[in-house]
Amino acid sequence: MKTGNLLFIGIMVGLVLFEFFEFLEFDPIYGGIIGAIIVGTLIGKIIGKGSVKYAFLSIFTYNLIAWIVTFLLTSDGKLVLQSGGVAVSVFIGSLLVLFFFYSMIGSFGAFVTCSLSRSEQG
Questions:
Q1: pLDDT score of 9
Q2: Residues 6+ apart with CB under 8 A from 30
Q3: What would the pLDDT profile of 33-68 be if each residue is shown by its tens digit?
């Protein structure tokens, strides 16, 4: 399977998990961590060696897409975007830090999964 297809699958699984946790009204922080671990583990299991960078890219991308859609389609998001320059900058900056945090957690999950599958084979 091509890596581009796997990235697409990782992004789609992440978006489905994001919306599933939103539907269950799960805390976004914990939902993001659980989703990152699941997507990272999935990518680590399928790709194997070198999966860390693909997991990072996939998790960062699905979080970016999900939060942009959330801000554009919800009244709370529109309220935040209309609040002013400094508030929006701080909020977007904190979201980017959160995206990196989720991506690092998912990358670690991919690394652990890849390492465990290699040790089972060896």
A1: 86
A2: none
A3: 999 999 999 988 888 777 888 899 999 999 999 988
Query: Dmax of the chain from CA atoms?
Result: 57
Decide: residue 104, CB within 10 A, 0-12 exposed, 13-18 middle, 19+ buried. middle
Contact assessment for residue 100 and residue 33, using Cβ atoms and an 8 Å cutoff: no
CA distance 101 to 95: 10
Query: Rounded to a whole number, what is the distance in angstroms from the first to the last CA of the chain?
Result: 23
Alpha helices in 24-84, H assignment, sequence order? 28-47, 51-73, 75-82
Question: Which residues lie below 8 Å from residue 104, measured CB to CB, with a gap of 6+?
Answer: 56
* Whole-structure pTM value: 0.85
* Cβ–Cβ < 8 Å for 49, 114: yes
